[in-house]
Amino acid sequence: MSSNAVLIVDDTPVNLKLVRVLLSRQGFDVRTANTAEEALELAQTFRPALVLADIQLPGMDGLEMTRRLKAAPETRDTVVLALTAFAMKGDEEKAFEAGCDGYITKPIDTRTFPDLIRKYLAKAKAPQGNSAPPAPLTAPQSFLAEGMEQSGRLIASLGSNFNPAEALAVVRRWAGMAAPAGRPEIGQYARELETVLQQNGRGSMVRTRELLVRLARAFAEGTA
Fold first, then answer.
1. Angle formed by the axes of helices 13-24 and 113-125, to 10°?
2. Is the distance from CB of 190 to CB of 171 less than 8 angstroms?
């Protein structure tokens, strides 16, 4: 198994190509699969260090595929990251329960995505001596890390290609996940920002930036 071998499992050709090209250019050894069944077969010979799996796949879904990877002795140490474009309440918990080591929502941030993959691989390869295997990121930790990345991306897009509808979907997810993650201040800021994004009055973009900066700071403090 190569330490930089990555298997991408997605039934959308555009997504497969984007992630494959992005990671290949960064030196990763990348293979792709359109279905969970194909991925399980490929994993027996390719032996990826990390699998990026879309949750919603035709036939066997990404979560069942993850359970099978984690149940097999030869692939149980493989890092599995769940990918989803339509995050619903409870999806993150289901992903971790299935054995996923992380949870990422689409669209991915192409500027930071390769480094995020490196961090997961580095965590998996870290020497542990006689101690237990490294624990996967918990749901709250994943929420904070992902929120820090997403808030930074939204701030960078203000004034240029900012998409209010996309931002609203992300912010609503933050509001729903903040309490279970033990970060009530993030929930408060997210609910305020949700209200602002639904308004079209003067000064709304100024307030949007202010709240996004507060959120980014809160996410960063949580991961410190």
1. 70
2. yes
Determine the average pLDDT of the residues in 180-194.
91
- Domain annotation for the chain: domains and CATH numbers: 5-136 (3.40.50.2300), 140-223 (no CATH)
The structure tokens listed for 188 are 């408060």
Written as six digits, the tokens of 27 are 């030196």
pLDDT at 29 over 90: yes
pTM score:
0.58
pLDDT tens, residue by residue, 45-101: 999 999 999 988 989 999 999 999 999 988 988 999 988 876 566 677 788 888 888
Q: Which of 76, 77, 96 is nearest to 140 (CA)?
A: 96
Element containing residue 175 per DSSP (H, E): helix 164-178
DSSP letters for 98-135:
HT-SEEEESSP-TTTHHHHHHHHHHHHHS--TTSPPPP
First-last CA distance in the chain: 32
- Side-chain half-sphere CA neighbours of 158 within 13 A: 17
Cβ burial, residue 83 (10 Å; 0-12/13-18/19+): buried
Which residue in 68, 63, 78 sits closest to 7, CA to CA?
A: 78
Question: What mean pLDDT is reported for the chain?
Answer: 83
pLDDT score, position 202: 47
Q: Is the peptide bond before 73 cis (omega within 30 degrees of 0)?
A: no
Amino acid, res. 184: P
Percent pLDDT > 90 in the chain is 31
DSSP letters of 51-85? EEEESS-SSS-HHHHHHHHHHSTTTTTSEEEEEES
